[in-house]
Amino acid sequence: MFGRKKDQDSGGSVIGSTTIEWESQYKEGNIMWKVPRLIRLNDNIVIREDEIATFFRDGKVLTYFDKPNRYALTDFNAPIVGGLLKFFTGVEQAAEVYYLQNRYIDGKFGSQGPYQFVDPVLGIVNLRIFGEFRWKISSPENFVNQFVGTFAMQTSDAIESRLKEQMVLLVFNAIGKMKESGMKITDLASNLQNIEQVVLSNAPSNFGQYGLEINKISGLTISLPDEVQKAINTKSEMSVLGVNYMQYQAGQAMTEAAKNPSGGAGSMAGLGVGFGAGSGIGYAMAGQMGQGMYQPPMKQCQKCAMMMPVSSNFCPNCGEGQQQVAQKPQGVTCPKCNTIVAVDSKFCSHCGNEMKSG
Fold this sequence. Notes:
The protein is an alpha+beta fold and about 350 residues long. It is about 30% helix and about 20% strand.
């Protein structure tokens, strides 16, 4: 009972007196150990530096020993023992003894259910938390009264499970308070240490009632859903590039198209997309979108197919000089109504006048 390993025996006769001690091989991994027999008047209790012995009866602690020594329960003059003698009048009225660890213990915690964080941009995001904490029994009386008397917990695992649940609740409360102060999902990574400090500051009021002291919080990790983490990573890249979401998406799409040769090199070249050109045209188009969808007249590089303004004399991608191509007339004037019509028109589209060739 009260251990992960097999309990040791009583250490002596069940009927007569004996020396009670918590053997070292039974302490590892255990928070406390219940002596498997009632304590009698002539017994001896051995306490080491890393132990506390509590005398428990009728649902409450009578007293406890926290100083290393051997305590003989026959010394009527010992003040700490003398107060117990009135309880040692028979087997039915004798007290139980629980040994407790008197040192800091390291533990881990993690949320089994998600914490729903409402973000103004991303909406409801389910968070999961993990971390480590260091704790110690600060009040043996409160500890045993709560866990043994109130909760009737029978194992160290049950006690540790309760502590981990309380740690998760403290972290959730800390995140909630910081969210009310304006923290967003994208701010979580930079605020992990601040969250740990908030948890530590609130720990005494939450764990003090159990007779516990939380000494340290470390390794706090807040896990985000994959799609949310991807969105945060995208936002970081946009910030570095100095573009908005539409510009970023356009640039990404064109860059990926440039990297994919499966669509056919000829068709891609026809669109003005080589590897270098793909990145250039992608973000160039994104920049044009950000400026109100306006696109100036463009022409294609005669060497690498990079698209560029018609006024460019050299390609910004490969440096090739661009020969000036004579512009074909856009139309002719009707001699009757002065309407501009297509060069190859036989009749005016406005007045029906026959257009003479030549």
